[in-house]
Design a protein that fits this description.
By secondary structure, this protein is mainly α. It has one domain (11-84). It has 3 helices and no strands.
């Protein structure tokens, strides 16, 4: 069974940083900022389009990532962002 995205969630389009260009966000996006390509229903306007960043296209929903709610998804993805952020010395 394939795990489906939760309607009106978009945690994966908000919590992580994206370093590659996104249409309307040429420098990518910082963690915690909603992607400019989200529509009013929190769906990706460039889903399936070639200009969609590869990192976004490669991200697949899973129970581990999405949890039982948007809040759980945001917590998990924020922790992952922190754990994988480059160390500044």
């Amino acid at each position: 069974m394939t795990f489906q995205c939760r309607p009106l969630c978009a945690a994966c389009c908000t919590a992580p940083s994206i370093s590659s260009p996104i249409p309307g966000m040429p420098n990518g996006k910082p963690a915690g900022v909603a992607c400019i390509q989200l529509d009013e229903k929190l769906s990706c306007k460039i889903f399936g389009q070639p200009e969609r960043p590869a990192v976004c296209a490669g991200l697949k929903p899973s129970f581990e990532m999405c949890g039982n709610s948007k809040t759980e998804a945001m917590l998990y993805l924020t922790q992952l962002e922190i754990m994988t952020a480059p160390q500044v010395f």
